[in-house]
Amino acid sequence: MLEIGASLAKAIWYLQDRDIVHSNIRCRNVFVAKYDQSITVKLSDTGVPDYTRPDDLFYLAPELLEHRDYKQCTIAGTLPRPFNKSAFGKFPISALNLGDIWAYGTTMWQVFHFGQKVPTCLDEENLLAFYKKGHRLEISGTFST
Description:
The protein is built from 5 helices and 4 strands; from the N terminus they run αβββααβαα. The chain is α+β, with helices and mostly antiparallel strands.
C-alpha cells in the first residue's frame, strides 16, 4: 500500500511541478499499471469532476468548499482540462494545489481501508463545519496508533 502512495505522489508531484492541477484525484481514477513483486499505479482522469456526487465531498479541501464558484464552473464545463495557472482568475493556484493534496489524502484513506467508500452523510455546509471543528475521516482500528 505504501508503494501505491509513493507512485500516486510521484504522479501528483509531476503535475504540480508543471503547474497543472488535476482536480479529480479519486480512488476510482487510480489504475494498477504493474503488479508483480512491487506495485505501480497510474493516475487517470475520467473527465471534468462532478461535484454533485455526494461521495466526492470528502475529496474537496476545506479551502475549496469555502468557494461557492467551484461547483458552478465544473458543472457548466467552463474549466479547461487539464487546469493550469492561466485558466483561473477566481481561485488562487495554491488553493487548487491544496485541493489535489487533500484529494490524495482521501484517496490514500480509501486505499488503506481496502476500497471502503467515504461517508456521504454530510452536505457541504455541515462538512465545512465538521472540518473547522478539527474533525477528519476516521481511521479504522487496524491503522490506529
